Structures are given as structure tokens and as C-alpha cells.
Amino acid sequence: MITIDNKNLQLSEEQEKDIRLEIAVMLYEKADYSFYVAAKFAGMHWMDFVKELGKREISIFSEEAFLNDLETIKKFGK
């Protein structure tokens, strides 16, 4: 667990918002958090967080889900 002493860290509201967003994106990418949970951490609506991921070219779809969809299309697409 990481704890930061608020006495030593003076951030503006905008800086705190930006840092929370960066951490949320990292949690989504690296720690396998859902975009919904990461958005909640960032203090954002999940749709806004998904848009932010899109701006960063981060997919909300897993490769496994994509491959399953592709197989389904091949199976029923003929």
C-alpha cells in the first residue's frame, strides 16, 4: 500500500484530477481493473473514461474477446 502524507504534497485541484486520471489509466492497463472501476477511481463517468482511453488509443476490448467474435463471424457469416 502506498501512503502519501498530505502535509508534504501540495497539489491544485486540477493537478490532483490529472494524477488520479493517470493512475486510473495505469490501473486499467497494468492491474487488470475494469474500465468502470478505474473510471470511478478517477472520479469520472465511465463513458468519459472510455473516451479518454480512446484518445490514448487504449482499447477496451481484449484480444481474447476479439478472437471469439471473429470465430463467431466465421461460423455464422457464411
Explain what the structure shows.
With 78 residues, the protein is mainly α. It is built from 4 helices and no strands. The protein is elongated and about 65 Å long. 9% of the residues are buried.
Shape: elongated
Mean pLDDT: 87
Strand content: under 5%
Structural class: mainly alpha
In N-to-C order, the SSE pattern is HHHH
Number of strands: 0
Question: What is the compact description of this entry?
Answer:
The chain is built from 4 helices and no strands. It is mainly alpha-helical and 78 residues long. The longest helix has 18 residues, at 13-30.
Features:
single chain, 78 residues, mainly alpha, 4 helices, elongated
Ordered list of secondary-structure elements with their pairings:
Elements: H1 13-30, H2 35-42, H3 46-55, H4 63-76
